[in-house]
Amino acid sequence: MTSEELKLNVEKALEEIRPFLQSDGGDISLLSIEDDKIVNVQLQGACVGCSVNQMTLKSGVEMTIKKHAPQIEQVINIEA
Questions:
Q1: Which residues make Cβ contacts (< 8 Å) with residue 33, sequence separation at least 6?
Q2: Which one, of 14, 9, 36, 11, lies nearest residue 27 by Cα?
Q3: What pLDDT is stored for residue 80 in this prediction?
Q4: Domain that holds residue 67
Q5: How crowded is residue 3: how many other Cβ atoms within 10 Å of its Cβ?
Q6: Which pairs with CB-CB distance under 8 Å and at least 24 residues apart come from 50-56?
Q7: In total, how many domains does the chain have?
Q8: Coil, helix or strand for 74?
């Protein structure tokens, strides 16, 4: 898989999870993908400072991204 295909798969995963975040007044954006293994995202809106955002990131976002792009090892939220 090329880096471009990987990015498309990660974006697809974010599109899948975005409605759930938006229903709680939040959002997420892809910042970068390092070494085709680490995805840097930024939680936005109500997700910023939310006490469950780490759980959301691990169980929701990371799991969904790995489903679309299995080679991803980690998803990191970069605070604004």
A1: 3, 6, 7, 10, 39, 40, 72
A2: 14
A3: 72
A4: 3-77
A5: 10
A6: 50/24, 50/26, 53/77, 56/21
A7: 1
A8: strand
- Positions of the chain with pLDDT lower than 70, given as ranges: none
Residue ranges of alpha helices (H) inside 1-80 are 3-23, 53-55, 63-68
Instruction: Give the separation between CA 30 and CA 42, rounded to whole angstroms.
Output: 7
**Nearest-10 Cα torsion for 46, 20, 62, 78:** -20
Q: Please list the residues that pair with 40 across neighbouring strands.
A: 32, 76
CATH number for position 55 = 3.30.300.130
Q: Is 52 exposed, middle or buried (0-12, 13-18, 19+ CB in 10 A)?
A: exposed
Tell me the residue type at 13: A
% of the chain surpassing 70 pLDDT:
100
